[in-house]
Amino acid sequence: MNELYNKIYDLETSLLKPEVRSSFNQLNDLLANDFKEFGSSGLVYTKQNILERLPLNADKVVYMVSNFEVKSLSEDIVMTNFETERIINDLEKKFSLRTSLWRKEGNTWRIFFHQGTHKTSSY
Q1: 0.70 exceeded by the pTM?
Q2: What is the CATH number of the domain that holds 31?
Q3: Of 31, 65, 68, 97, which one has the greatest count of Cβ atoms within 10 A?
Q4: Beta 92-105 vs 108-118: how paired, if at all?
Q5: Which residues neighbour 102 within 8 Å (Cβ) at sequence distance 6 or greater?
Q6: What is the DSSP annotation of 42-76?
């Protein structure tokens, strides 16, 4: 499980890195064709929306990840749950709870679902 945890952690956190978020090719490789996201803004995104939007985003965004968990749902599907602290342009901080579903396609893991929810207080 440690090997799977490390692999999925690396993939998930790569999606938060500016160099990946600004790369059409890397995003295209990581997102499944049927990818869907329910954003913390309430908007729904598809792979096409993400590929059109993220590579053009020029904001300086830094993510801090905590409480990362991986749960195997089947041999080829895993779910992640984690929290992020997002700092935009060194000023604005936002906290989110996040869940993703990853599917193994051949030898490659691709994300096919993600949901982010604003975290407003401790639980």
Answers
A1: yes
A2: 3.10.450.50
A3: 31
A4: antiparallel
A5: 8, 11, 12, 77, 78, 79, 80, 109, 110, 111, 112
A6: S-EEEHHHHHHHGGG--S-EEEEEEEEEEEE-SSS
Q: Please write the tens of the pLDDT for every residue from 22-74.
A: 889 999 999 999 999 998 888 999 999 999 887 676 567 889 999 999 999 99
At 2, which helix (H) or strand (E)?
helix 2-14
**Domain that includes residue 16, residue range:** 2-118
What tokens appear for 34 in the block?
């049927």
Q: Decide if 62 is inside a domain.
A: yes
Interval 63-91 mean pLDDT: 93
Read off the amino acid at residue 100.
S
- On whether residue 123 sits in a domain, the answer given is no
Phi/psi at 17 (5° precision): -85, 135
State the Cα angle at 83 between 14 and 69, rounded to 5°: 75
Q: How many domains does the chain have?
A: 1
Task: Indicate whether 80 belongs to any domain.
Answer: yes
